[in-house]
Design brief:
Elements: E1 7-12, E2 16-20, H1 24-28, E3 33-34, E4 60-64, E5 71-72, E6 76-79, E7 90-93, E8 100-107, E9 110-116, E10 122-127, E11 130-136, E12 143-151, E13 157-165, E14 179-186, E15 190-192, E16 197-200, E17 204-208, E18 212-214, E19 217-220, E20 226-230, E21 236-238, E22 243-246, E23 250-258, E24 263-271, E25 286-291, E26 294-296, E27 317-325, E28 329-331, E29 335-344, E30 350-358, E31 363-365, E32 371-372, E33 376-377, E34 385-393, E35 398-407
Parallel strand pairs: 1-25, 17-24
Antiparallel strand pairs: 1-28, 2-27, 3-4, 4-14, 5-8, 6-7, 7-14, 8-13, 8-15, 9-12, 9-14, 10-11, 10-13, 16-19, 18-22, 20-23, 21-22, 23-24, 26-30, 27-29, 29-35, 30-34, 31-35, 32-35, 33-34
Keywords: Signal
Protein name: BIG2 domain-containing protein
InterPro entries: Big_2, DUF11_rpt, Invasin/intimin_cell_adhesion, OmcB-like_DUF11
Length: about 400
């Protein structure tokens, strides 16, 4: 029997415009403290892991553990006792293994400072999913501003850091304490909000009356809470897990929303029982693929698709993102290439630009084949989501990213 395959017409959302607030006043609100002297007044930076570094050295900027851009999981609390503690307090866990804290920054070097004591254990350090291993903050001295970890050779760009408490009980104690006192990064860097992305595995869904289908939300960071809502519950309902049920003939939009207000949508079409929404198996039948690419810098909002745009700063720089493909029609199994062109159309340098491109329905990305004229492909990229850390784009600057893709059923 001759097999016919469905033919897809690719439609693109191309005119993504991103408004960026980059100005002196924007940086004035940054609460980091820039170092003015080196440890022991040396000419060059002289602090090493194990040093007590009460203030940041030259070329560094310090953020306190209480900064609201640092995300603590459950079981962390502030404590204000002991010598050399930066700003008089540190944040420690409740002696439980596997507790995490996370933060994001723009820069190329990092120092982590802790509180040290003889009942401390330590933490596992991860940067951009690279595991640097376990580090200890156990000592017979009781002091803050202890230089616990240092990395001086990161690529300039946006980095995500996580510290996870470990089980390393020393003979002097049966506890597993760990505490964060401060974070040091480049003096021209920035501690960033720990952002979240949201995508759905389907942009369209066809159901018959009485039938159900499942929508799956993917968030970055993983595990963020998602709520679901139908634009017309009389046509289609959705429960707390993303299960959609057809009620009557018609069309409704299912919206997934995170606690931070990010949204992703799927258009659901309900047909009467016995009616095939695509009745003709001939290749002339078509389906639509809608693809949205996101671009985000550390001094920008997150724009794209139906995501609500929130401005942080003056609107004096814009990025345009245009996405095209080298084909207009494809068959299942075909390979083709998406091209994304990101241009700074404003008058200020766009800082720490990150391009996030979730795959639409029926598309798998070839991660190893992705190329960019600037920056690098993030190690967390998958066949369903490509992330490129572009970095800074000057006024009139252009970056081109090519993403090979395969059409799947």
């Amino acid at each position: 029997m001759k097999n016919y395959f469905k033919k897809f017409v690719i439609m693109f959302v191309m005119s993504l415009v991103l408004t960026i607030g980059f100005s002196v006043s924007a940086f004035a609100s940054d609460d980091g403290v820039i170092g003015i002297a080196n440890l022991n007044n040396t000419t060059e930076n002289s602090a090493k892991v194990g040093s007590i570094l009460k203030d940041p050295e030259k070329g560094w900027k310090r953020y306190d553990d209480a900064n609201n851009k640092i995300v603590y999981g459950s079981g962390w609390s502030s404590y204000n006792n002991g010598p050399n503690v930066y700003k008089g307090a540190y944040t420690h866990n409740n002696k439980t293994v596997g507790k995490a804290l996370k933060f994001k920054f723009y820069g190329e070097k990092l120092r982590i400072l802790t509180w040290t004591a003889n009942d401390n254990s330590g933490a596992d350090v991860k940067i951009d999913d690279k595991d640097y291993g376990n580090f200890s903050n156990c000592s017979n001295s009781y002091e803050g501003s202890y230089l616990f970890f240092e990395e001086l050779n990161l690529p300039k760009g946006v980095h995500e850091v996580s510290l996870i408490t470990i089980d390393k009980k020393y003979t002097v104690s049966k506890d597993n304490w760990f505490a964060l006192d401060a974070i040091d990064i480049d003096s021209n860097g920035q501690l960033l909000p720990y952002d979240e992305y949201l995508t759905l595995d389907k942009s369209t869904l066809n159901l018959t009356k009485g039938d159900s289908g499942q929508l799956t939300a993917t968030t970055t960071p993983a595990g963020a809470k998602v709520t679901w809502k139908s634009s017309d519950p009389s046509v289609a309902t959705v429960d707390s897990t993303g299960k959609v049920t057809g009620i009557k003939e018609g069309q409704a939009t299912i919206t997934a929303t995170t606690a931070d207000g990010l949204t992703a949508t799927c258009v659901v079409t309900i047909t009467p029982n016995g009616t095939d929404p695509n009745p003709n198996p001939d290749p002339t039948d078509t389906d639509k693929i809608v693809n949205i690419a996101h671009a985000k810098g550390y001094n920008t909002n997150n724009a794209g698709g139906d995501v609500t745009i929130i401005f942080h700063g003056s609107a004096d720089t814009t990025l345009s993102v245009v996405k095209t493909a080298d084909v207009k029609e494809v068959w299942i199994g075909d390979n083709f290439t998406y091209t994304l062109v990101i241009t700074n159309t404003g008058t200020k340098t766009a800082k720490a630009v990150v391009v996030n491109d979730p795959a639409p329905n029926h598309i798998d990305f070839n991660v190893s084949g992705v190329t960019t004229t600037q920056g690098s492909v993030d190690s967390s990229s998958t066949s369903k989501n490509i992330i490129v850390n572009v970095g800074d784009i000057p006024p009139a600057g252009t970056v081109t990213i090519k993403v090979p893709a395969t059409v799947i059923l």
